[in-house]
Specification:
The protein has a seven-stranded parallel sheet with strand order 3-2-1-4-5-7-6, covered by helices on one side. It contains eleven helices and 14 strands. α10 links the parallel β12 and β13. The protein is about 30% helix and about 20% strand.
C-alpha cells in the first residue's frame, strides 16, 4: 500500500477558510504543511494561532515567485477573487505538475480546469493538476437542483441566506456585526458570480437572490422548481436518495434542514421536499457550512482526489 507523504502550501492562510484548511491538514496522515502565506501574520508562529500544529513553522509573506520556489507538491490558493493568476503562472513555469486548488472564482469558467464538486463532477476528473473549487452558494444550489434537471420547466429560483463569514475578513457592511444585528441584508440580486457559475455548470439559467444574516457560518438555500410533469413527493425524494446514495457528505433528510444544525459539520443536508397543489412545483432546501463543504472540506476532497488519496481522508464524516 502506498503511504507516501506530499508537501502542501496554503496561500491566504489567515482567512476563515484558511483556518479550516489548516485544521484539516493537521489531521491528515499524508500531507505535510510546508508553508503558510499571510501578509498580516508574517513572522508569527502557526502554533500560536493553531495549537493543533506543533513546531516552529511561521507564517510568511510570499509573492508568486517565492511560492513557486518552495517546490511543493500542492498549493491551495485561498485568496480573494482576482488574485490567483500570478501564482498560477509562476507555479506552471517552475513546476508544471504542482497540484493547484483555487478557492476563488477566477477559474470556475475555464474549461481547462477541473471544476471540483466531487459528488456531481467526480466522473470528469481525469488527472487534471488545476482544480477550481466551487462557490459555497453554488455548491448548495447544485445539490438542490441537479437531481431534478431533466424535469425542469423553467429557471430554478434560488433564495440564499449566508452567515457573515462568507463575506471574508476584510471589513465591509456584509460582515459588520452591528449592521447585521436583527437584519437580513440582500445584495447582488441579479448576475451574482454564483448565479453565472451554476447556470454554466447545470446548463440551465438559474435565478439567485443572496442575503447575508447575523449568524457567523452556514448557508440556507431554498430552491423553487417548476416541473414539466406531475410528480409525487415520494418520486422527488427517491430521485435525491438515488442521486446521493453512497455519498458520505450528503444527507437527504425529510424535513427542511436547519442551518444551526449544519454549522461546523463537513457535509450538506438536502430536504424539506414540498410539492404545491398540482404536483408541478416543488421547493427544496439545502444547507451547508460555507467554510467547510462550501470551501475547505471540498478543497480537501479535491486535493485527496488529485493526489490519489482516499477522498475523505482527514474529513470527519
Amino acid at each position: 500500500m502506498n503511504d507516501s507523504t506530499f508537501t502542501l502550501g496554503i496561500v491566504g492562510a489567515r482567512g476563515h477558510t484558511g483556518a479550516e484548511l489548516i485544521k484539516l491538514v493537521a489531521a491528515h496522515p499524508r500531507l505535510k504543511l510546508a508553508f503558510v502565506s499571510s501578509r498580516e501574520r508574517a513572522g508569527q508562529r502557526l502554533s500560536d494561532h493553531h495549537p493543533e500544529f506543533q513546531g516552529e513553522l511561521q507564517y510568511e509573506n510570499l509573492d508568486a515567485a517565492a511560492v513557486a520556489a518552495k517546490g511543493v507538491d500542492a498549493v491551495i490558493l485561498a485568496l480573494p477573487n482576482g488574485l490567483a493568476a500570478p501564482f498560477v503562472a509562476a507555479l506552471e513555469a517552475a513546476r508544471p505538475d504542482t497540484v493547484i486548488v483555487d478557492l476563488s472564482a477566477d477559474y470556475r469558467f475555464d474549461n481547462s480546469w477541473y471544476y471540483g464538486l466531487p459528488e456531481l463532477t467526480r466522473n470528469r476528473y481525469n488527472g487534471q493538476k488545476h482544480i477550481s473549487n466551487p462557490g459555497c452558494y453554488a455548491t448548495a444550489m447544485q445539490l438542490a437542483v441537479h437531481p431534478l434537471l431533466d424535469l425542469l420547466a423553467g429557471p430554478p429560483q434560488c433564495f440564499g441566506v449566508s452567515g457573515y463569514s462568507g463575506a471574508g475578513t476584510t471589513p465591509s457592511d456584509k460582515n459588520n456585526v452591528e449592521l447585521l444585528a436583527d437584519n437580513l441584508m440582500p445584495y447582488a440580486l441579479t448576475n451574482h458570480v454564483h448565479e453565472r457559475e451554476v447556470s454554466v455548470q447545470l446548463g440551465v439559467a438559474v435565478e439567485f437572490m443572496p442575503h447575508v444574516a447575523p449568524h457567523f457560518r452556514g448557508i440556507t438555500l431554498t430552491a423553487n422548481l417548476w416541473l414539466n410533469r406531475v410528480q409525487t413527493r415520494e418520486q422527488i425524494i427517491e430521485r435525491f436518495q438515488q442521486a446521493y446514495a453512497g455519498e458520505a457528505l450528503i444527507d437527504v433528510v425529510d424535513e427542511a434542514p436547519w442551518v444551526s444544525r449544519i454549522a461546523g459539520r463537513h457535509g450538506a443536508q438536502v430536504g424539506g421536499f414540498t410539492l404545491a397543489p398540482g404536483g408541478k412545483r416543488v421547493v427544496v432546501v439545502a444547507t451547508l457550512d460555507n467554510l467547510l463543504k462550501g470551501a475547505a472540506t471540498q478543497a480537501m476532497q479535491n486535493l485527496n482526489l488529485a493526489l490519489g488519496i482516499d477522498e475523505l481522508t482527514s474529513i470527519p464524516h
